[in-house]
Amino acid sequence: MEISEYFPVWDKLSTEQQNRLTGSAIRCRAKKGGIIHGGTEECLGLLLICSGQLRAYICSEEGREITLYRLFERDICLLSASCMMNGIQFPFSVEAEKETDFWLIPPDIYRRTMEESVSLSNYTNQIMAERFSEVMWLMEQTMWKSFDRRLAEFLLEESALEENSTLVITHEKIANHMGTAREVVTRMLKYFQNEGLVTLSRGKIVITDLIKLVQYSEK
Amino acid sequence: MEISEYFPVWDKLSTEQQNRLTGSAIRCRAKKGGIIHGGTEECLGLLLICSGQLRAYICSEEGREITLYRLFERDICLLSASCMMNGIQFPFSVEAEKETDFWLIPPDIYRRTMEESVSLSNYTNQIMAERFSEVMWLMEQTMWKSFDRRLAEFLLEESALEENSTLVITHEKIANHMGTAREVVTRMLKYFQNEGLVTLSRGKIVITDLIKLVQYSEK
What we know:
By secondary structure, chain A is α+β, with helices and mostly antiparallel strands.
């Protein structure tokens, strides 16, 4: 497996840029459960995922965690190269949820290439905007509005009422019950699904991890 | 006042790009207290501040506000052009804290120029990274760790003990008292200063808005 097959906008880079990336990227493997980036402000480099699954999260002082997002094959983790862009500086961690193969690209190499290539720069912009948006939404909903807790409570109550771990209910209906927009419900349910709490299918929500869902409802 | 004097990396743009920006940017003025961007997901365009002061903030459903950041002369507000980058989508508001002159740059024009110019693209990356980092830090500290509330409490207690609204204490000392890092204290005190709660000078903190500080401590 070559980096050329995984790196975004590879075809739009010059041969020199391609050689520079190939020559400097380090192939790494993280075991399941391994912590790749540790919450301090070290500047490890960019992670380009080849296979496996990573989870970026933040920790409170009491050790509670919030998952920011997950990274899969071909995803790039920018935040682990905080020094690359003068701005990014906040403590967060990256953990391998499955055995993960990735390339570690030195921050100075990526930065130099980005400063030369408008394609790479715009690509980087795009993924940063997506993460920014994702993380802002999540933090607003979870930390401020406690929508995760409220939704977990709602699902547990419904399940108790129906005496069934499978709920036959639309996202629209939940939104009406909770006085919010359908999009907000759908997005949080997807977050729950990624966290392993529920499984979603058309018109149905199956509670798959009751204990964890109860923990969410008691946050 | 010409846009050429305010627009970042102007000298690195081609004449065609410069003309495109000059020809499409709209000069606007917002009165003090005016809401420029309203929390919905409209895509207004980029704001390039000529003079004045803007405040970007989010609102909870109960109407509480958190200031995300302020924008001054020559600053660019990217978030008001959410459609420009497919990713950015979260509700926030922008208010003029002083009478503010700004250029409104249509999102498609900015995007096109950014896709052509590596200088503009990298500049955009840089400011997005800075805002991302700033906002993440703030949300972690305020929403999760309630460090704003705890610091407000600490300042009020100190002030009551000393019977004085001027506290002679270093940030280092506060950090030790509160079991955190000096940088965290300094950054939050600066946020308080921007919010008008305190005035900072070497080795001193003057409480300038007691009522608002009490409100913070009771959040």
